[in-house]
Structures are given as C-alpha cells and as structure tokens.
Design brief:
Length: 289
C-alpha cells in the first residue's frame, strides 16, 4: 500500500497541474485517490485547486461519510464513489472542466470517434453522458455504465471524469482527451477531419488493449472485430468519407459566383431583373452540382 503522506503530496501536485494546464478554474473540479479499500482521500468542497494545500484534503469512506480532515467533501464525490464501485481495478479519479472537450459537448460534436492512432491505441474513444444536474445522485448513476467500459468520459455541458490505477494514469487520460480535442478542433477549423478507416481503428484498438490494458470489460473484447469501439467507429468508412453525424459533418454550404451580368453602376429595373435571373440560375447550378 502506498503511504498516505505520498498520496497527499501527489493529489496536491496533480491539483496544481489541473489548474496550471487550464483543465479547471476557480473552485471547479475535484480529485480523489484510494488510501485503502475502505478509505478515500479527496479534495474538499469549495477550494481552489491551483492553491491547494494539505488542509484542503479530507478522508471519506466508501459511502461518502467524512472520516478525517477539516471542511466537507463535495457533493460531486457521489460521482467518484460510483467510479470506485463500478471499477474495482482503479485507484484514482480526476474530475475537471477541460474547456475544449466540454465545448465539443455543447456543440453536439462527438468525441467517440477514431481520429488519432495513438489515442485509439491507448485510450480508445471518449463517450458523452447525457446532461444531468451537477452533484446529484442522478448524474452519478448516469455515469456508471460509461465508466464500466471507459477510462475517460465527458458529461454534457459539464466536464470530464478520468480514471486510472494511479493519479498519474488518470491525469494522462485527461491530458490525452483534451489534447485530442484541441487537435480535432484545429483540424475542423482548417477544413475537415479525416477519421481513421474502420479496419485500421479496430486493429489499433485491439492491439492497444492487449499492450496497454484498459477497463477489464474492454480488455475482454480485445479479440472481437472492432474490439470495444462504438458502432459509429466500426461503421465509419474512413478518410475520404467523414460521417454525416460524427466529428466532421459534411458541410451543406455551396458556392455560386455571378459573372458578366453586364450591369451598370446604377441599376435600372431591367438590370435588376437580369441580376435576379443570373443569381437564380447560378444558385440552381450550384445546388445540382
Ligand atoms: Zn464539475
């Protein structure tokens, strides 16, 4: 078992890192780590993670009751406890509000797609849990089926929950998720997102689960075609055909250019009529292309 002093220092270090790397602001977010099978060390309610000190940590039991420390555990601990219940294999949970990943949920753009080979290999896809009020048992219950199968999830309009066998591994999942969101957003800004072909995504995921592990339920599916990838990925036709509902919805915008309308600087009603005709014919031509 890792000494409590070491875990207290770690949770302080990763809290500071969450703030320094813009994963949260002000009093947002919370981190926790298992001290034993019955005790969980966590950040207390209403503390700034960028300035977190030892006195901001509390120890709770597996039902959320405070055992030691000043201050109260946050209502969002229900979410952490649901993760520990569903995933006996993990020891740390980091909940933050990473801005680009959360923006994906607000825009309704899925991050459960296969775009970067390294991410498919190590993390798989990131699902989004439907909206529920923060800090409620309803939200904690909604995330249960997702954390059973994933090490990183997004909650609609809210934030991320990342799990790991240690705080470092939970942090890596969070960092990978937000970095993927930044790369994907930049690609969208530049034009379009070319997803990995389904067979390559399936092969990579299967290889990654065997090499690096993952949620036990996902590792058990490593040999299945497509491994644990969602249908949206295995049904994706890859690079040349971005999915209409996925990361790179096909633009419906069409361009039309009107030339040689032969119009004067001051338009007569006859010229205005000719402009209208030219516009209509160009728009129709662009639409049927
Ligand atoms: Zn939150």
């Amino acid at each position: 078992m890792i000494p409590e002093r070491k875990l207290r220092d770690e949770i302080i270090r990763f809290s500071h890192l969450c703030y320094e790397r813009h994963m949260l602001v002000a009093m947002d977010g919370n981190l926790s780590v298992k001290l034993s099978e019955t005790e969980i060390l966590c950040t207390k309610a209403g503390c700034h993670k960028g300035f977190l000190v030892d006195e901001d940590l509390v120890v709770i039991d597996r039902k959320g009751k405070k055992l030691r420390g000043a201050g109260s555990p946050t209502s969002e601990m229900a979410m952490h406890l649901a993760c520990y219940d569903e995933r006996p294999d993990i020891s740390a949970v980091i909940h933050t509000h990473p801005p680009i990943s959360v923006a994906f949920t607000i825009a309704g753009v899925s991050m459960a797609r296969c775009v970067l080979p390294e991410v498919v290999l190590t993390l798989g896809t990131v699902p989004t849990v439907e909206y529920a009020t923060t800090g409620t048992l309803t939200l904690a219950d909604k995330i249960r089926p997702y954390v059973r199968d994933h090490d990183a999830i997004l909650m609609d309009r809210h934030g991320a929950v990342c799990l790991g066998k240690s705080l470092l591994l939970a942090w890596c999942n969070l960092e990978t998720m937000e970095h993927t969101a930044l790369i994907t957003k930049t690609a969208r800004d530049l034009g379009h997102v070319r997803e990995l072909p389904a067979d390559e995504a399936g092969k990579l995921r299967s290889m990654g689960l065997k090499r690096y592990g993952g949620p036990p339920s996902a590792v058990a599916r490593a040999d299945n075609p497509g491994a644990d990838l969602p249908h949206a990925c295995t049904g994706c036709s890859g690079c040349a055909h971005p999915s209409p509902s996925g990361i790179a919805p096909k633009s419906e915008m069409k361009m039309a250019r009107v030339t040689q309308a032969g119009l004067g600087a001051t338009m007569s009603s006859r010229e205005a009529g000719r402009l209208e005709d030219a516009l209509v014919s160009e728009v129709l031509r662009a639409l049927v292309k």
